[in-house]
Task: structure prediction
Amino acid sequence: MSSSKATAYLRGISASPGLARGPLVRLEEGVRTGTRASASGPDEPTRLRSAIDAACAELTALMQRAGDADTEALLAFQVAMLQDLVVTEPAFTAIAARVPPEQAWLDAMELQIRQYDSADDLYIRARASDLRDMRDRVSRVLCGATITPVPAGSIVLAADLPPSRFLEMSWEGGGIALTGGSAHSHVAMLARARGVPMLIGLDPGILRVHGEALLDAENGMVITSPDAQTTADFVARQQTLRSGRLVAESHLALPAVTASGERVQVMINVADGAELGNLNPAWCDGVGLVRTELLLRDQHDLMDEAKQYEAYCRIARWAEGRPVTVRLLDAGADKPIAGYTVDAELNPFLGMRGVRLSLLHRQVLSTQLRALARAAALRPLQIMVPMVTSPDELDQVRQMLNGTVESLAKEGLDCARPALGMMVEVPAAALTCDLFEADFFSIGSNDLIQYVTACSRDSRPLAALHDPLQPAVLRIMREVVQYANAHGIPVSLCGDMAGDPRCVPALLEIGLRSLSVAPAALAGVKAAIARYRSEASEEGHSA
Amino acid sequence: MSHDEGAPRATGFTVLTHEHGFHARPSILLTQLAKRFSAKVWIGLSDNGPWTDAKSVARVMALKAPRETLVFFAAEGSDAADAVSALVRLVQSDFASSKDQ
Result:
């Protein structure tokens, strides 16, 4: 299209993955203050009042077709703010002092927005863009301006995109390129939910660019004025991506089987059970990890046996008889609980966390074990102990569990003795797994990788060093899997690595036949398993 | 917080356990509930104030109360006691009662 211009590559940060090709369309933003040089009259407050009411009505209409609870909540926030006298009153006061309504409204909103912009909390700061959106909607109505629709299939260019504008547009084939924006913003969430590719943090220079462009939110770049070859390559990648997604989706409801016909167990990781609402239990082979930290948020929850029992039963009932593995409270390090975890440790990831804390707080541990043993009477349930380093720690938990079951029986309460297994995430435990009396192993790859490589999980400069596929990590995992398989001890892996289709072949190759992944990763992981043919079977069992 | 001698008053407090503190949804639910009562209702992060209008979503969010903070309620008016106990219950339920609606 713009063959005279040179192809340019502009870097951005991906907030929603995918590829889009189309014309760059600059979104007009904000609203210039009306040029109406009107003196304040008796109708001015009424004009603002009706503009606010009209904006509320528009937002309420958008809410009805939002389709998800989060979006509804976001629009409800704008409506609640518009109906809050604390927010609107300063504008009416200014109008009474002869400030034109357009200006009075902008000033009043600026007061609110400034508070949000300066917040430390990322979530609160991201709400500033919701407030700008709400401000502009009212301003538009006040000025009588209308919005020019953006043609479908465009790459929308803007400093930031308000979520309500997102909802008003058709995104089939299109994408979003923002110079500002935040991956935590609501529009980023919407874009991810609806599969619209989106980049943020692009150079503001892009706002002046026109013509055809390629938005590559897989690699974080916009390619402007692409030549024919670049475009052709891009279109080919789009097709591969699309068919890959279709293939993955077609695997979701099917059991996971490798290309050589071997069945692989794929379970899901669950935080507090709230995510199970839209999930069909038949899509997975059970729950490989229930993270109880989200169920147990404070000291009160820690001692609330009834609440825990209810929560475990709810998850177990959902699973309809499929096995459910509950991890004992894994607090500490990045998961503090006031009054339970130890404050101000110099190196919290090497400090009091997981079972180390549980053994310090026996009352809390005993409460959780009671709730679990009672829930186990209802449906199959097993218990997994996090951060085990030495066999003695697991022995202590086992003794407590046996004692718990005995006393529950004495009290005449229904209970069962759940299997007791351990997370393998401390290298010391991985290297000596034969010394532990565990009913099953679950490899916690997130921590194991960071402990084996001495690299913090969230350090970007160290990303290459804590690559899950590096040989030291795979070798130590293979030791565990081979020992477990040779002795008939069930072994699984429940870290992020299991949910990464790129890692799946390596995990199957070291002998794992059970993975536990985030629900969103189910389809992709099953598709990766279906593509896998073991090296041994390819070589005709030469190994 | 102004005192109207003679009007019934009530106070109460609880721990805010919501994962994100007073973010948008909890703030909206809290103010919607507060508005159902005719009493004046305030919210604060200590038992001696400063007190904030619990019927204003902007004010409640501006508290920026993180998770695990104590929140205090005070109300003044004929249904003050009901207002305080309803608000305490809403926070204690982790705003769950309205989650599924």
Summary: The mean pLDDT of chain A is 88. DSSP finds 19 helices and 16 strands in chain A. Chain A has three domains: 8-28+148-246, 44-143, 258-533.
